[in-house]
Structure formats: structure tokens, C-alpha cells
Amino acid sequence: MYYDSDFITFAKHKAIFLSKIDMSQKGSVDEPIENLVLYLNNNCDDYFTTSSCSGRITLFTDSIDEQNTDEIKHHKKTCRFVLTSHQIIDFHTLLNAFSKFYDDETNRRKVLSFKFEPFIFQVRCRTLASAQMLHNLALECGFRNTGLTIGGQNKKKLTLTLRSTLIMEAPLNFSSTAESMQLLVETANEKMTKNLEMIRNFDFKFKSTFKIV
User: For the whole model, what pTM was predicted?
Assistant: First the structure.
């Protein structure tokens, strides 16, 4: 088909991509999906992963970096992470991070964002048929925001992105109460627990579908 890549070309692109150093901040694959990533990359000729995150709970603040280039002032928005976890957290973990941030009086007027981001899994697919097969499996496992993008000059770069609808975000400030933070932790933990269950289900069904012969 028009969008499909041949085995040799795809295998070459896969080998080059997977040989690159992981440039993410963490520098490695998240533990809850490490086995899935290795299985897919090592045993499935029609797929390889390009980016992944098992899901995370974060507390962060936006900041503006001013840069002067050729006498023109540019503003670059960046995030300062106060807390990051790829597992459920307890209330005191959030409270301690919150308190430490606002102990600095210069932060008292700043707003923090408490956010849960679910599993995201980007997979390059060799053919449209293999992309459709993985897309159907993802939907079956509850990843309703999964979608396919087609790129490259020859329209043969097929990337399937698996996502769910479990995302949440809420603002916190210096006046936020312990009760409100407790509720946020409980809600985020419920979503993380569901998120990890969905990952395990997808892992099982993917390996059952693509068994090593």
C-alpha cells in the first residue's frame, strides 16, 4: 500500500532510532512499562517505540525566562517541577513539596499546578494494517484518545499514539488548604491506579497477540 514501508527500510530506520541515547529528562524507560517497551522493540518487526511515559503525578510552576537576541527580548515559558512521581503518592509527600516551595517568600504569589498525566505510548508502525491492528487493541483496552499521524516526505512515517482520558489538573496557591490537597491526592491516586491497571491489561493482550514463535 501507498503508506507502507518495506521490511529493509523500516528495519534500518528502527535500528538507527533505537541506537540513539534516550534524551528524556529521566534518561530511561519508566519501570511500569519497561518490559512492554523491550518486548515490542525486540520481538515485533512492524513496530518500534519513539516515546513513552507510564503516567505521572506532578507539582510544578510555570516561569518565564527572558532572553535577549539581536536586541530583541524573547520570553520563553518553562516549567519548574517541585514534585514528580510515576506511582501513587501519599498526602504528606505533596504537603512537604508544597510547604518547601512556599517556605521561600519569593514564591508566595506564584501558582502551582497539580497534575496527573496518564500513560502515553508512541509507536512507529511499518504498515497501515499493523497500525490499525494496534489501534484496535488500544481501544479495546480503554485508550480512547489513541490516534494515528502520517508524516514524512513520502507519507510513510506512521506513528500511533496511545492515550487515555484520565488526565486531570488543578491550581494550588499559598492559601490552598490541606483538605483540598488531600482530595487532589486521592483523585490522582485513583486515576494512577486505573492507569496502571490499563497498562497491565494492554501489556497482557499485546503479548498474547504478538507471541514469540
Answer: 0.85
